[in-house]
């Protein structure tokens, strides 16, 4: 049996359920059956949004940890560090602000 055997999953989910199974498990099986076409896509295509979700979570954690920074530049630099981006120098940032205001 391969790791991505959708037919085996589908067979297991469409099989009749034993009356001894708890109501929570019945609900879980019902949910999986409902989303079976979407689950099949995850077996077929190699794409997922794990990287985006990880970045979003990192931003939320940093935002929580950085609560209370008084200096906006330090706040920005604290976000840039974990993502390995180059910090913007103040002069180029001020030039951008002036050009937007003009």
UniProtKB/TrEMBL annotation:
<protein>
    <recommendedName>
        <fullName>Transposase IS204/IS1001/IS1096/IS1165 DDE domain-containing protein</fullName>
    </recommendedName>
</protein>
<dbReference type="Pfam" id="PF01610">
    <property type="entry name" value="DDE_Tnp_ISL3"/>
</dbReference>
<feature type="domain" description="Transposase IS204/IS1001/IS1096/IS1165 DDE">
    <location>
        <begin position="25"/>
        <end position="78"/>
    </location>
</feature>
<dbReference type="InterPro" id="IPR002560">
    <property type="entry name" value="Transposase_DDE"/>
</dbReference>
């Amino acid at each position: 049996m391969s790791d991505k055997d959708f037919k085996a999953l589908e067979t297991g989910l469409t099989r009749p359920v034993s009356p001894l199974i708890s109501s929570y498990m019945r609900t879980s099986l019902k949910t999986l059956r409902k989303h079976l076409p979407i689950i099949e896509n995850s077996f077929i295509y190699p794409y997922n949004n794990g990287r985006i979700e990880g970045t979003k979570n990192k931003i939320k954690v940093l935002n929580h940890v950085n609560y209370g920074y008084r200096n906006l530049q330090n706040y920005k630099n604290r976000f840039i560090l974990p993502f390995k981006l180059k910090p913007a120098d103040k002069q180029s940032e001020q030039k951008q602000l002036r050009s937007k205001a003009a």
